[in-house]
Amino acid sequence: MKLEKWIGMTNMVKEFTDDQLNLLGQQVVEDWQADLITREDWERRTQDGLDLAMQIESAGDGPWPNSADVKYPLIAYAAIQFHARAYPEIIRGNDVVKAKVIGRDQDGSKQERADRISKHMSYQVLEEMTEWEEDTDRLLMMLPIIGTLFKKTYFCPIRRRNVSCLRKPLDIVVHNDAKSIEDARRVTDQGIWLYRNDVHERKADGIFVDEDIMYEFDEEKQAAEQFLEQHLWYDLDDDGYQEPYIVTVHRASAKVVRVYPCYDKEAIIVTKDGKLARIEPTQYFTKFSFLPSFDGTFYDIGFGQLLAPLNEAINTNINQLLDAGTLSNMQGGLISRGIKIKGGKYQFQPGEWKMTDASPQDLRDGFFSLPVKEPSAVLFTMLSFLVDAGKQLSSVADVMSGESAGPNEPVGTMLARIEQGMKVFSGIHKRIYRSLKSEFKKLAKLNRDYMDDEYYFRVLDIEQVAIRADYNEKDLDVVPVSDPNQGTDIQRLAKAQALMQVKGAPGINDWQIVHNYLEAIKIDNIEEIHPKEGKEQAGQQPPNPEMIKIQMDAEIKKHELALKGEKQAAEIALLDAQIENTRADTMAKIAQAEAAELGPQLEYYRQFAGQLGQENDMMRQSMQERMTDGNIDESGMGGMEEPSDDGAGFQVPEGVPAELGTEIPIAPDSGADLPGGFDQGGGIVGP
């Protein structure tokens, strides 16, 4: 299969005819130009936002030369505020990348590999990839203005290491209707400008084809030539299925200088009978988004597009106020020709008087000042409204920049306002977190493909090793150390302080609690102060085994007492249930006796009801006293007599036949008062 043959080739140009390459080069240039047209409006609005953020002066747009041309830094202020919050969250000391264990880790080997990967990749991005931290710093400053930025991650054969460089959105061209960069049919990097020396180096390394190129500029001009690197789908093996490739073309001549397979062996998926099913392309670009576009198009928006109209209105308002003040201070007007005075400009120093031949009457009648008003208070009020609206839209109110709303504002109220203001930034931080995770996954894949079997590096003057085989497993996930779910610095500190209160409790990881607290208060040398190997190395003695046994015995005794209390409560509940059953049975028999009209026997049964209430109260009181004294039987109710066989739970009074213990008819017309809970008609009136 040709696809497998091409894997690993630095340049595939020699595999194709000149006609194929010419057709391919022309198509790359035409598709690039077509994609540029789809994003013209976004590109124009982005450039306007950049001009406002950089406060570029207008070219003679005022009402007179040197008129006011102030650019209010609304967009720049919003971008600086965002950068100040986001940058410390992403770069936290020496820890940037973290490997998470997926699934169970029975012997701890997964966590050991995760620790090696975390330390190695953090070292890579901060020390080995010298451009990464600086580009990330620039990204967090540019992203809130432009709205969309890209990182290009690849293994550079010239530098012999991984590279993840920042690419401006104006350099990366994608069709604006594409759903995502992974689903785009082509991605063109138009920002590759190479001098002839650069082209010569690439030819020597075999990256570019060693053929003549019709350059756009003469060699004497020493000008850089533009090359287009397009990641596209194209059918080069004539099997009817388009494969992913990276094609580099000289823009002016449309000459193809390089063709590279944008896939690896694992990406080729075949059916059971060995036929090609699909190919998963290798992703080199990572898109960073600030705010998703409101119309769902590919290029997202930032403060540059969102605040540009409002910023323009603020600029116009300020300049009108300044120009009005200029006209009011430097008055002009008309002079009558009849006045004996030279025309032109008259400049006066403070306290200076100039002589003239004109009379005072002539001076009063010969000068006419233009009707100029002072700066309008309405415009000044409108200016305050526009500035406040811009700050609210960009979530950079005074409280968010560290200023209090008043000297008497409670701390809790201010924290709540800051928390509410951070909601917008928290959503943006999550998008950046998602993009960083994608970038780190690309770096991990490059380590798996290109890293030496064992790579030694030094962190804090300690030599450590990273093993290439660690990156071959799929039971680890690489994520940024920064977590948007952890909240602000104040929130993390509050959580860490709350956890310190439960330090030492059973089942609590004291080491992790102390580690989180040291991170919250931003201690740099945490590993030296609080090593992970154990408390012994942190200057603490191991716990005494005898003390552990005493603590365990105390816990067991406490649980036994709790169980005994639960048993006593259960016995009281059982007694109450038996009393209620006895009471209900008695009521039923009274009703049966009344229905049978037994006459005098009703008096005896009324005595039973009275005796029932007294005996029940005495039994329950005696039970509670025995439980309080601790004399209760372990087997149950502790000496309490079993209920009598009459089914009513009390002794049958003298004179009443024993066989009436189950059915005792009572006459309803006895005329005597019934026990509590019954009226003379046999109805229930109370509990």
In brief:
By secondary structure, this protein is of the alpha+beta class. It is built from 17 helices and 16 strands. 44% of the residues lie in helices and 13% in strands.
Low-confidence regions: 397-404, 534-544, 631-687
The number of helical elements comes to 17
Distance between the termini: 91 Å
Task: Compute the average pLDDT.
Answer: 74
Shape by Cα distribution: flat
**What about the largest sheet?**
5 strands, antiparallel
Q: Helix fraction?
A: 40-55%
Structural class: alpha+beta
| Largest sheet strand order | 4-5-6-7-8
Rg, rounded, reads 44 Å
Strand content: 5-15%
Count of individual beta strands: 16
Question: What characteristics describe this protein?
Answer:
687 residues, alpha+beta, 5-stranded antiparallel beta sheet, 3-stranded antiparallel beta sheet, 17 helices, 44% helix, 13% strand, flat, disordered C terminus
